[in-house]
Amino acid sequence: MVGWRTARAGILLLVGAWGALAAHPALAFDNAAAERVLEVARSKLARTAAQTPVGQYPKSSRPDGTWLLVPANNMIGWTQGFFPGELWLMYDQSRATDWKTRAETWTRPLELQQYNRQTHDLGFKLMTSYGLAYRLTADPYYKQVLLTAAGSLASRFNPKVGIISCCDWNPDWHLPMVNDTMMNLELLLWGARNGGQSGWRDMALLHALRTLEDIVRPNGSTYHVVDYDPNTGARLFRGTYQGYANESTWARGHAWTVYGFTMVYRYTRDPRMLDAALRVTDYYLSRLSPDGVPLWDLDTPEALKDSSTAAAIASALLELSNYVPDAERKTRYWNEALRMLDALSSPAYLSTTDASPGLLLHGVGNRPANQEVDVSLIYGDYYFLEAIRRFQRQTRPPSASDWYSKLGFAAATHDLGSGNTGVQMVQFDVTPLNTLLDATLGYADSATSVTAFSQLSMLIRMNASGFFDVRNGASYAATNSVPYEPLSTYHVRMLTDLAAGQYSVWVTPPGGTEILLADRFAFQTGAPPIDDLGKLVLRSGFTDDDYRVSGHKVESGVWPSQPGFYLGTRSLGSGNTGVQVAEFDVTPRTYPLDGVIGYADSSTLVLGRTELAVHMRLNPAGFFDAYNATRYSASASVPYVANATYHVRMVIDLPARCYSIWIRPPGGAEVLLANNFGFRSDAPATDDLGRISLKSTAAGEFWVVGHTLRPATSASSPTPEP
Q: Which InterPro entries match (predicted)?
């Protein structure tokens, strides 16, 4: 009773907040809205767990604010998996042991369903419960139950027609197929991939293709039921059981096809499945109500909404947006999903009081039978929470540059090619997608077949204590402490010297400045030889998609300084004439130092400073300066520190023999260092920027990265001092 009072108080506290939100225009769905929904879910699910006997499972809300319950041993019922599924989603989000305990408590009584051959709904019952349990715990007990259940579902496959028979309880049907079965195919596809019979995949794909042929109409709308002659395969009936009319489109049944074709494509990558998913999706969106929540049947004249359909399709669209080939469609599907989540999380649909035990109001179960009309539905709540978790893992439209971590080494490996040799700069954004990880990002040679962590030379880790660290020889360490938070994006920069067997790593937290994480750490002890950055491995520590890497790029053109002007000279060609803009990043590796970055004509042999018409310096006093005709000077004081990166922009007017320099410190604004300085007065004639020299006292005391030259525009030309 104490637990219920606590949960009830939490729910009532949220009522005032939602009342305040109702007084203002709806905001676009975002992380804050997602967290508000999860807070409501935590309270409601904790209350349901406290009040529901183990072995009983919520289905739909009743007028008295309680759940209609279904026992674990009901073989025809299809909804028992959704409540434990919600509990597993709460555990996935929090990693809190109390949610895991609740989830296990309501999952295990469903074990007897693995032998159920009376229904097609084993996927609904067991992928939501045992499937999530295995994904989140890797306990082989859950896996074995799923494989046995997949065999039970496969027993309902009719090879003559190529379908899974949905059920035996309706005497008017002979060999029926319904669009609901698309959701249950995942059990077969998962089983075939995880040690079961390979033929299960073929059964699932054949059923999906028959659904596409006989349930999906040419315009993308759908029937609910098709009945066949089991002996000849002839079609006996097409129509509906739970929809408005035989030629109408029952909304939730249509959602099962949007979600189902998307899911089958995930497992098979069959282009026919993607095409089917796009077709049924586009039809649905063309018929959707302005608020993003459909009528219970897309053709009914009755103004009765079904929130469970919106929840399932929102979740499906967040996944489907990753598979569509064109960027415009990706963004459209993602935005449509957010529009639906925005509506469902508004006071019009989200229940924040005790009047309903569920999350979503206005669900419709079976309107023709007048059952479960305008109520909370456990499956609507489940797909709503699943959509929330999918949104939290991807809070912006998908990009082709997004890579997600995986548990298996093969799936986690990305090929970077064999040309990334010598000194390389790597940059990317990384977003942890769960509360605590033990996940690793590593690099290996292009010739290495990565099957273990020991084969990775460079490893960056988000550890189980909530911090970044980096492999240094035989152990993990960090030069500075850098914590990570879930759903926040961090920019990572890694500078690696393959010949020296050393690498440095910097991390920029959201809204912060760059922090040195690893300073010239040694490659992992015992790793295979590495001559190139050929493979990137994004290895999850707990589940697939623990973190996301975006915009990964390997940048050649990393130039270390050398102990001598001649040694440090690189050719830039002879065509850089007139007014030129030079840009690059410079990173001092020590402090202080005496380093020079200078330019000379393509015909000049650079042996000392006097050959450099244009040059800037990292001086021993710890500041940048530049040579102005006869001496070093600076228009403004710009200090430098070791292992920080400064962006440099120069505008060099060769005919006028003058130049200006701007420096942008880490996280700061651009500062004018040299305003219209004159070329060195005793330097040789300079008609082009043909050579650059990077000189320091010892090799590698500073690095120049990403050097570019381009002709200047008037806007970038130096402005003479008055």
A: 6-hairpin_glycosidase_sf, 6hp_glycosidase-like_sf, UG_Glycosaminoglycan_Hydrolase
Tokens of 234: 């002839």
Query: Could you tell me the end-to-end alpha-carbon distance of the chain, in angstroms, rounded to an integer?
Result: 81
Instruction: Give the separation between CA 459 and CA 471, rounded to whole angstroms.
Output: 5
Q: Give the whole-angstrom CA distance, residue 494 versus residue 473.
A: 16
Residues in the chain: 722
207-231 mean pLDDT: 97
Say if residues 489 and 395 touch (Cβ distance below 8 Å). no
CA–CA distance from 379 to each of 359, 468, 549 (Å)? Answer: 10, 38, 32
pLDDT at 371: 96
Give the model's pLDDT for residue 37: 97
Does 381 participate in catalysis according to the annotation? no
Write down the pLDDT at residue 714: 56
Do 370 and 347 meet the contact criterion of CB atoms below 8 Å apart?
no
Which is catalytic among the residues 139, 168, 172, 180? 180
Query: 544 an active-site residue?
Result: no
- For the cut 50, the answer to whether the pLDDT of residue 284 exceeds it is yes
What pLDDT score was predicted for residue 28? 76
How many whole angstroms separate alpha carbon 283 and alpha carbon 234? 28
Is 162:210 a contact under the CB 8 Å cutoff? yes
Provide mean pLDDT across the span 675-691.
96
If 0-12 CB within 10 Å is exposed, 13-18 middle and 19+ buried, where does residue 144 land? middle
463 close to 517: Cβ distance less than 8 angstroms: no
Of residues 336, 279, 554, the one with CA closest to residue 428: 554
SS3 61: strand
- Catalytic option among 121, 497, 585, 625: 121
3-state SS class at 681 = coil
Mean pLDDT along residues 451-472: 96
Cα 301 from chain centre: 40
Span 287-311, pLDDT tens digits: 998 999 999 999 999 999 999 999 9
Structural domains of the chain ordered from first start: 36-72+179-393 (1.50.10.10), 402-556 (2.60.120.200), 560-711 (2.60.120.200)
Q: Which residues of 629-650 are buried (b: 16+ CB within 10 A; e: fewer)?
A: eeeeebbeebebebbbbbbbbb
Phi-psi region of 622 (alpha: psi -120 to 50; beta: other; left: phi over 0): left
Answer whether 0.90 is exceeded by the pTM: no
The answer to which of 367-371, 384-388, 397-401, 570-574 has the lowest mean pLDDT is 397-401
